[in-house]
Specification:
Blueprint (H helix, E strand, L loop, with lengths): L6 H16 L4 H9 L4 H13 L6 H14 L1 H17 L7 H5 L2 H17 L3 H15 L1 E3 L4 E2 L4 E2 L5 E3 L4 E2 L4 E2 L4 E3 L11 E2 L4 E2 L4 E3 L3 E2 L4 E2 L4 E2 L7 E4 L4 E5 L5 H4 L5 E2 L2 E2 L1
Parallel strand pairs: 1-4, 2-5, 3-6, 4-7, 5-8, 6-9, 7-10, 8-11, 9-12, 10-13, 12-14
Antiparallel strand pairs: 14-15, 16-17
C-alpha cells in the first residue's frame, strides 16, 4: 500500500527541484538536505544531525537518536509541520516552505528542543541536556528540555531566546529574538512563565517568574513582565503595565506590534 500524501513535504520537494534547476551550483546542497530523502522527518534528522554533530557525538549516531524520537512520537511530526506553516504564514520573508528546513535557526532549534523533550520524558536526561547545550552553542537558542511547548510556534530570528525549565508555551505563540521566559532568582519548583494561546512576544521581552500571559495578549519590545497579564491585553514598559488591548483574538497570527487603546492606534 502506498504511503499517504504529505502536502508539506511534497511542496518542499517541488521547491527544491525548482531551486536546483534555477541554481545548478547548489544542486548538491538541495539533494543532500531534501531530494535524497523520503520524508520530512528523514530530511530534518539529516539537517539537524549535520549541524549539531560534535567530536563526542558524530552525525551518524546523532541522526539515529533523532530518527528514534521522530519514529516513536508521531506528535513531533505533527508539530513540526504546524511550525513550518506558522513561519511561512507569519514571516513575510518566508516565501517557501523549504526555507525553515534549510536556513531558519528558530525552526531548527525548536525541532531540536522537541527531540530533547522526548528524551527528557524518557528519563534519558543526560542526553536531553546534551542536546540543549548543543542547540545553545549552534543556534544561540536555549530551551530547557523539560519545558512544554505546543505546536504552531514561530521564533523569528531566534538569537538569544531563553525558555526555562518549568515554562509552558501553548499553541500558536509567536516570539522574536532576545525573548526570555525565565525565573527571578533562586526559587525552586514551578518558577517560569506560562504563555497561553495566540500570544505575541515582541523582541527583547523578558517574562520573569511563574506569571501567566493570558490568551491573545501582547508583550511589547523590551518589556519586563513580573505580574500576570490578562487575556487580550497589551503590556509595555519596565515593569510592564497595561497599555491597551489587542485588536485580534490571536495577535501572534498577524504579528501586529502596534499598541491600540479602545480599538484605536495610540
Amino acid at each position: 500500500m502506498s504511503e499517504p500524501i504529505d502536502p508539506v513535504w511534497e511542496k518542499i520537494r517541488e521547491e527544491a527541484r525548482q531551486e536546483t534547476a534555477e541554481e545548478p551550483m547548489l544542486a548538491s546542497f538541495f539533494h543532500a538536505i531534501i531530494l535524497n530523502h523520503r520524508s520530512l522527518e528523514d530530511a530534518l534528522s539529516y539537517q539537524l544531525a549535520s549541524k549539531l554533530e560534535s567530536t563526542t557525538l558524530p552525525a551518524l549516531s546523532l541522526r539515529d537518536l533523532i530518527d528514534e524520537a521522530f519514529r516513536d512520537d508521531p506528535a513531533i511530526g505533527v508539530a513540526m509541520r504546524e511550525d513550518i506553516r506558522a513561519v511561512c504564514d507569519r514571516d513575510p520573508a518566508c516565501a517557501d516552505l523549504s526555507l525553515p528546513l534549510l536556513y531558519l535557526k528558530g525552526f531548527q532549534a525548536l525541532e531540536t528542543y522537541r527531540v530533547s523533550h522526548y528524551y527528557w520524558r524518557k528519563g534519558r536526561r543526560s542526553l536531553a541536556r546534551f542536546l540543549q547545550s548543543r542547540t545553545s552553542e549552534v543556534f544561540g537558542v536555549d530551551i530547557h528540555p523539560a519545558a512544554v511547548l505546543g505546536k504552531g510556534i514561530f521564533i523569528d530570528h531566534a538569537t538569544s531566546v531563553v525558555i526555562g525549565e518549568t515554562a509552558v508555551v501553548d499553541d500558536n505563540v509567536s516570539m522574536l529574538h532576545e525573548v526570555t521566559l525565565g525565573g527571578t532568582g533562586k526559587e525552586t519548583g514551578d518558577r517560569h512563565p506560562k504563555v497561553r494561546k495566540g500570544v505575541l512576544l515582541s523582541a527583547g521581552a523578558k517574562l520573569l517568574g511563574n506569571v501567566v500571559i493570558g490568551e491573545g495578549a501582547k508583550v511589547g519590545s523590551g518589556a519586563v513582565v513580573l505580574d500576570d497579564v490578562p487575556p487580550h491585553t497589551t503590556v509595555v514598559g519596565v515593569p510592564a503595565k497595561p497599555a491597551g488591548r489587542a485588536r485580534t483574538e490571536q495577535p501572534a497570527l498577524d504579528m501586529d506590534h502596534k499598541i491600540y487603546e479602545n480599538g484605536e492606534e495610540s
